[in-house]
User: Fold this.
Amino acid sequence: MNKKEALIRIEKLREILEQHNYNYYVLSQPSISDFEYDLLMQELITLENKYPELYNENSPSQRIGDDTRKEF
Assistant:
Protein backbone atom coordinates (compact mmCIF):
# COMPACT_ATOMS: atom_id res chain seq x y z
CA MET A 1 0.00 0.00 0.00
CA ASN A 2 1.41 3.36 -0.96
CA LYS A 3 0.83 6.67 0.85
CA LYS A 4 -2.06 7.71 -1.40
CA GLU A 5 -3.86 4.39 -0.89
CA ALA A 6 -3.20 4.63 2.85
CA LEU A 7 -4.72 8.11 2.97
CA ILE A 8 -7.86 6.90 1.20
CA ARG A 9 -8.20 3.94 3.55
CA ILE A 10 -7.51 6.04 6.65
CA GLU A 11 -10.17 8.56 5.65
CA LYS A 12 -12.65 5.76 4.98
CA LEU A 13 -11.91 4.08 8.32
CA ARG A 14 -12.32 7.39 10.15
CA GLU A 15 -15.67 7.90 8.47
CA ILE A 16 -16.85 4.36 9.28
CA LEU A 17 -15.72 4.59 12.90
CA GLU A 18 -17.36 7.99 13.37
CA GLN A 19 -20.65 6.55 12.18
CA HIS A 20 -20.33 3.57 14.52
CA ASN A 21 -19.46 5.90 17.42
CA TYR A 22 -22.58 7.93 16.68
CA ASN A 23 -24.73 4.81 16.48
CA TYR A 24 -23.34 3.54 19.78
CA TYR A 25 -22.95 6.66 21.91
CA VAL A 26 -25.73 8.92 20.61
CA LEU A 27 -28.38 6.56 19.32
CA SER A 28 -27.60 3.69 21.71
CA GLN A 29 -28.00 1.38 18.72
CA PRO A 30 -24.71 -0.31 17.89
CA SER A 31 -24.68 -1.68 14.36
CA ILE A 32 -21.57 -3.89 14.62
CA SER A 33 -20.05 -6.04 17.35
CA ASP A 34 -17.31 -4.77 19.65
CA PHE A 35 -14.98 -7.24 17.98
CA GLU A 36 -15.68 -5.83 14.51
CA TYR A 37 -15.27 -2.29 15.81
CA ASP A 38 -11.95 -3.20 17.42
CA LEU A 39 -10.68 -4.69 14.15
CA LEU A 40 -11.50 -1.48 12.28
CA MET A 41 -9.89 0.65 14.99
CA GLN A 42 -6.77 -1.49 15.02
CA GLU A 43 -6.46 -1.20 11.24
CA LEU A 44 -6.74 2.59 11.56
CA ILE A 45 -4.14 2.76 14.33
CA THR A 46 -1.76 0.54 12.37
CA LEU A 47 -2.02 2.75 9.28
CA GLU A 48 -1.67 5.96 11.29
CA ASN A 49 1.45 4.56 12.94
CA LYS A 50 2.88 3.50 9.60
CA TYR A 51 2.14 6.92 8.07
CA PRO A 52 2.54 9.42 10.95
CA GLU A 53 2.44 12.32 8.49
CA LEU A 54 -1.28 11.52 8.04
CA TYR A 55 -1.92 12.15 11.75
CA ASN A 56 -5.11 14.03 12.60
CA GLU A 57 -5.97 15.00 16.18
CA ASN A 58 -9.67 14.53 15.35
CA SER A 59 -9.21 10.90 14.35
CA PRO A 60 -11.37 8.40 16.24
CA SER A 61 -8.12 6.78 17.33
CA GLN A 62 -7.25 9.95 19.28
CA ARG A 63 -10.52 10.33 21.19
CA ILE A 64 -12.26 8.44 23.94
CA GLY A 65 -15.94 7.67 23.56
CA ASP A 66 -18.52 9.02 25.95
CA ASP A 67 -21.61 7.00 26.75
CA THR A 68 -23.06 9.58 29.15
CA ARG A 69 -26.66 9.99 28.18
CA LYS A 70 -28.94 12.89 29.01
CA GLU A 71 -31.59 10.61 30.49
CA PHE A 72 -29.29 9.67 33.38
Observations:
- The mean pLDDT is 91.
- The longest helix spans residues 3-26.
- The radius of gyration is 13 Å.
